[in-house]
């Protein structure tokens, strides 16, 4: 066998291996979606089948009419969008100022932000809960938001990007022309940060969308659940069967997967940047 | 433009963010440290200072010890499964960058990392189900007798570990992929000229050069592992009246002490232990990195 053919063959073997592995990674999600369309006898079938024999929409209709699933999805979407907006705004302005107005006190502030970045949310979650309680914001989107208004990594990411891609001369030129600082920020800096802000936005949205521990303690009424909390508590119920559980999970999962596929590039950029901070 | 105007802008721009930051980050972190040295059960008005008593009690608390042990086993288990596997996968995917399937590989491996935790955990709960789950069905083909995965105290920890690894893998692969792309191509060409095969190149070039990234991924994976909660919550919570084996993890124990037993000071002490673990792990990472650059 000549080397070129050999090379090709090895490539195919690797492809086949990776393909099998990729399908195995996706299998749990495929099974879940498939269960959503199974009839009760299908679900009790042994051994379990990958695809439903006799696909039904009954589970879907049942969860959508019997549970406030859409309400929970709405709560999650509102929470995630507002959190994203807050994180983008705070990161953009703080990242820019900390990058371009260097001085001792500001450098100290940045060091403090970096140092607290390694403290996991779960560590200070309980005192924050009591703050939210004192403000009377339990069981509300505003209460959920309190935990997700700022992201240290976001400030860091924007600061790095401003340092790397926005030259001082550009800002100075605008100042010489008489531009005000706010005008410069809004009209020159923000448009140049579109890329990193996009990546950060996707990251922030998914972070809030998949949050679990915080919504679980802050949102404790059926009307205020986020979709993660609603599903987690719904699945502990006595009367629900696997078909309905899977249908509810599918309703949440499929849009997530679609949105992720559309925004994959942004997301990957954001995550990749998070790994390069050292 | 005067300096005064300039610093006026800085203050006006930065103060709102800093105020929020102080209010939702710095203050609660300080409060957790404060509470951990105090006795406070939500209802009482007084919070007497008790020094390190909470920590002393934690040391002898069998539930806390169980939680710490489970959490550590899960965190290190996920690390051992994820990091080596992710490195090999990243190298293979990188080798096949030209393949038409490459974007599919990346997406498929990464997807479990972004899908909502609860639906994903529900999928695995069914897979592990003793009566109806596919895992036992597949095992029975090989003559393995069915196991009660979620009810056995050891196996249920393994289940949480598997679920967490499945989720963590994509992140590690992605970071390794970025790292591998940034390695100098000339080294590989030189190795090839010297007659090194692809496996040798991987072992003697890729693995050593990736060391800082491996350290970073390891620490991120461990820290995430120590914060495990939702996975254990969903897998262990009872379905249709059949309670699963409760996998007690740190965050769960902490929330139980705080909100079910109303011992906020005690729960805060647990949070401080979690913080110390994370700080220690980060410290070790930086220590090892410095060692490397000195060598």
Give the overall shape of chain B: globular
Please tell me how large the radius of gyration of chain A is: 24 Å
Instruction: Note the run of SSEs of chain B as H and E.
Output: HHHHHHHHHHHHH
What order do the helices and strands of chain A follow? HHHHHHHHHHHHHHH
Architecture overview:
- The complex is a heterodimer of chains A (278) and B (295).
- With 278 residues, chain A is mostly helical.
- Chain A has one domain: MetI-like fold, CATH 1.10.3720.
- Helices cover 76% and strands 0% of the residues of chain A.
- The longest helix of chain A has 34 residues.
- The mean pLDDT of chain A is 90.
- Chain B is built from 13 helices and no strands.
- The radius of gyration of chain B is 24 Å and the shape is globular.
- Chains A and B meet through α1, α4, α5, α6 and α10 of A and α1, α3, α4, α5 and α6 of B.
Q: Which keywords apply here?
A:
heterodimer, A: 278 residues, mainly alpha, MetI-like fold, 15 helices, 76% helix, flat, B: mainly alpha, 13 helices, 0% strand, globular
Compact overview of the structure:
Chain A has a single domain (62-275), classed as MetI-like (MetI-like fold, Orthogonal Bundle). In chain A, 76% of the residues lie in helices and 0% in strands. Chain A has helices at residues 3-36, 40-44, 58-66, 69-100, 104-117, 121-134, 141-146, 152-165, 168-176, 181-192, 194-209, 213-218, 227-234, 242-262, 264-275.
In terms of topology, how is this protein built?
The complex is a heterodimer of chains A (278) and B (295).
Chain A: H1 3-36, H2 40-44, H3 58-66, H4 69-100, H5 104-117, H6 121-134, H7 141-146, H8 152-165, H9 168-176, H10 181-192, H11 194-209, H12 213-218, H13 227-234, H14 242-262, H15 264-275
Helix pairs in contact in A: 1-14, 3-14, 4-8, 4-11, 4-13, 5-8, 11-15
Chain B: H1 3-36, H2 53-60, H3 62-95, H4 102-114, H5 117-128, H6 134-141, H7 153-181, H8 185-193, H9 198-209, H10 211-226, H11 230-236, H12 250-260, H13 264-294
